Amino acid sequence: MRVPCVRVPVESGEATRQRLAEAALLDGDREISVEDGDIFIPVTDADTVPAEYEVVERVAAERTGQVTPDEILGYEPSYERLGDIAIVDEDDPAEARRVADAIMESDFPCETVVNRASKVRGEYRIRDWEVLAGDGTETVHREYGHEFLLDIAEVYFSPRLATERHRVVEQVAAGERAFDMFAGVGPFAIPMAVRGAEVVACDVNPRAVEYLRENARRNGVSENLTAIEGDVREVAAEYDGWADRVVMNLPHSANEFLDTAVTLAGDDCVLHLYDIQHEDDPFGPGERAVRAVAGDEYEVTVETERVVRSYAPHEVNVCLDVRLTRV
């Protein structure tokens, strides 16, 4: 059906939409559309549209779904969801605020919008956040049937790794003994425990371990998950030769802990080693490092080489699933 629409450049779309909304001229039953750099905003009465706007007749589909931030802004902004928090990544404060307002005005399910205010830094791998809408940075994130309470200002957590975590967890069998060397709030450890593994999970961040213990309780696995606060290198001797599976998700420096992983490994153990390497040789450095540390004690078999995601220009985040079999 052809209806009157205000046509403006995309960059003016949100301001125009707001003005039309204030004048009660928006046609809420029709979809906003974008074409060739222009945004078309359906209106209810062409005769009362302010004179500075161009009004055209255009086919506009009936609105059947929810209002999205894209429709409000006239373009697709970059953001991700973590629990009830929407995370944007905008260098321009004004644009960040504009995106936040659109997210909150839309039907996108969230209570808070934050913008990244620093890079990940420090031993705990946390960053600063600017809260643009809502209040607080604690949330409950749900992933593959599990829930994780966390505060993004106090712990590291990446929702982008959900598929990769699920891939690893699906390999776990009931009765296994699994050690998560850098556990955070438990996104690997807790699902492994849910599958029936006996899990030991370690982290140096005290707040992460507090959340880990709470999340073990929330997911009903407190009995088969041991949470340890501290440097894994200082507790490994207590679990010498214990593990059937070791998760090493500390991409920038996991190789520095390979001797500890080998200490933890039992007679037949799978290491999940996460690494960041140049795209020209993404897996070679990690494999060579494992073989060097394993020495003559273990036969080393690389079972999976997987690019998890792009990390930076010409750099990739990878995972090596490596089986160590004691000779």
Distance between the termini: 74 Å
Low-pLDDT runs of 5+ residues are: none
Q: Mind summarizing the main beta sheet?
A: 7 strands, mixed
- What helical percentage do the residues reach? 10-25%
Question: Which shape, going by the Cα principal axes?
Answer: elongated
**Number of H- or I-type helical stretches:** 9
By CATH's scheme, which homologous superfamily of the largest domain applies? Answer: Vaccinia Virus protein VP39
CATH architectural designation of the largest domain? 3-Layer(aba) Sandwich
Major sheet: arrangement of strands: 13-12-11-14-15-17-16
CATH level 1 class label of the largest domain:
Alpha Beta
Structural class: alpha/beta
Mean pLDDT: 93
The secondary-structure element order is EHEEEHEEHEEEEHEHEHEHEHEHEE
What's the structural domain tally? Answer: 3
Could you tell me the number of beta strands?
A: 17
Report the CATH topology name of the largest domain. Answer: Rossmann fold
Please state the CA-atom Rg, rounded to the nearest Å. 25 Å
Strand content: 25-35%
Keywords: Cytoplasm, Methyltransferase, S-adenosyl-L-methionine, Transferase, tRNA processing
GO biological process, one term: tRNA N1-guanine methylation
Pfam families: TRM5-TYW2_MTfase, Trm5_N, TYW2_N_2
GO molecular function, one term: tRNA methyltransferase activity
Which key terms come to mind for this protein?
single chain, Alpha-Beta Plaits, GMP Synthetase, Chain A, domain 3, Rossmann fold, 3 domains, four-stranded antiparallel β-sheet, 9 helices, S-adenosyl-L-methionine, TRM5-TYW2-like_MTfase, transferase
